[in-house]
Amino acid sequence: MSINNFSKVVIVAKDEWRYWLRSKLAMTVLAIGLVLTLASVIVTAITMMELSHTRHELQTSAEQSFVDQPDRHPHRMVHYGHYAFRAPSPLSTLDPGIDAYTGNSIFLEGHRQNSAMFADSRQGTALTKLGSLTPAFIVQTLAPLLLILIGYSAISRERESQTLSYLLSQGTSGATLIAGKGLALISVVGLILIPLTVSALFTLDSGEGLLAVASFVFGYALYLTVWVLLILLASSLFSKNSSSFTALAFVWILLCIVMPRVASTTASTAIPSTGKIEADFAVKAELRKLGDGHNTNDPAFKQFNLNKYNVSSIDELPVNFRGLVASESEAKLTSVLNKFAEQRMQAELKQTKISRYFGWVSPMVAIRSLSMNVVGTSIETHHRFLRETEQLRFDFVQGLNKVHVEKLSYQDDMNRNANTAATQKARVSAQNWQVLQDFTFNVDTPEVRTQRSIPAFLQLLLWIAVLLGSIKFVGRRLL
Known about the structure:
- This protein has 479 residues and is mostly helical.
- Helix content is 68%, strand content 2%.
- The chain has a two-stranded antiparallel sheet.
- Helix 2 packs parallel to helix 9 (174-202) and helix 13 packs antiparallel against helix 15 (379-407).
- It is elongated and about 105 Å long.
- The two termini are 22 Å apart.
- Mean pLDDT is 84; it is low at 121-130.
C-alpha cells in the first residue's frame, strides 16, 4: 500500500470515528464494553487471588491436621484421609476455564479415588449457568456483539445515504474505503483489549511466563479481528443497515451461542461416556475379584508369597501380616482404579478434541480452546492434577501401610478389640504420621501450553485469510 493510499485509509478511519462520536448509540456501546471488561477483570482478579490464598491456607491446614492426630491404629489414618488443593494459575484470573466445572480440591483416602470437589458452577445459583461475567466471557461473547452494534452500518450506511457512489467517484477505491472502516473498528478492538492486556501483564509478577501472556493477548486480538472482518463483509454485501444488522445478529447467535453447544453435543454423541452408576458397578465388579484387604482370611490372600521372608507360616513373620495384606490389596486396588480412571480421562480427551474441531467453523470454539490451553485451565491440565493427586494418595496410603507392617506386631493387631488395654497397645506413635509429601500443583510451562494452542491459532488465521479474500472480492465490486 502506497503512502497516498494509507493516508486515505486514515482519513476514512477518522471520519468513521467522527460519526461515532456524534452517535450516542456508538459511544454508549463502547463505554459499556470498556466498563464491563474492566469491571470483570477487577472482580475476577480479586476472586482468584482470594481463592489462591484460601486454597494455600487450606492445604497447609489439612497437612497440619493430619500430622497433629494422636496415637492411632495406622489403618485408622488411612481412612482419616487428606485433602489436596489446586491453586489457580496466574492467568486464570482472566479465564477460569473448566476449573469452574471440575472442582479444585480432592479428598484422598484409602481404597477410593474421589472426584474433584467444590466446583463454582455447582455451588452457584441457576442464574450463573448462563456464564459468569469473567473477562474471557466478556471478550468471547459480548465484545463481538458490541462491535456489531458499532460497526454494522460501516459500509451499508454510505450506500443507504447514497454517499457511496460520491466517495468512489472522488477516487477512493472500494478497498481503501473498507480498509479505513476496518482500521476504525480495529482501534475499537484495541480499546477493548487494553484492560485485558494490562491485567495479563500484571500476571508476570505472579510468575506467569511472557510467552503465555503474549499468546493469550494475541489470540484474543486475532479473534476480535475475525469479527471486524465479518462485520465489514456483511456491511459491504447488504444495501440496507437493517439487513446488515439482521445478518450479523444471526451470525453472532449461530457462532457464539449455537455452534459451541453443537460442538459439545456432537462430541458426547460421537464418544459416549459411561454413566456414573454404570461405571461404579463395573469398578466394584473388578474389585470383588481382588478380595477384601481388611480380611486376612480372604481366599484371595491364601497364596500370599512368604518365601522372601524365609518363613513357612504367618506367625513366623518378622512383620505384621495384616499390614502386608493391606499394602498388597491397596496396590492391586489402585491398579484397577487407575485403569478405569484412564479410560474415563481418555474418553473425555477424545470428546474435547472432537469439539475443538468445530473451531474451523466457529471462531468462538477456537478462542475458547486457545484461551483455556494458554491459561492452563484446559482438560489436559485437570487430568494431570488428577494423576498427581492420585500418586500423592497412593504414596501416603502405602506409607501408612508400611507403618502398619513394621511398627505394629501381628498379635497385638489381631487382639486389638479384646479389651481397652489391647486397643491402646494396637496403636502406634503419632510421629509416624510424617508420611505426607508437600503438594503444590503447577501448571504446564508456557511453551507446552502455547504448543497445545497452535491448532486454535491456525483456525483463527484461516478465518482471517478466508474473510480477507472475501472482502477483497466484494471490494472490487463495491457500488
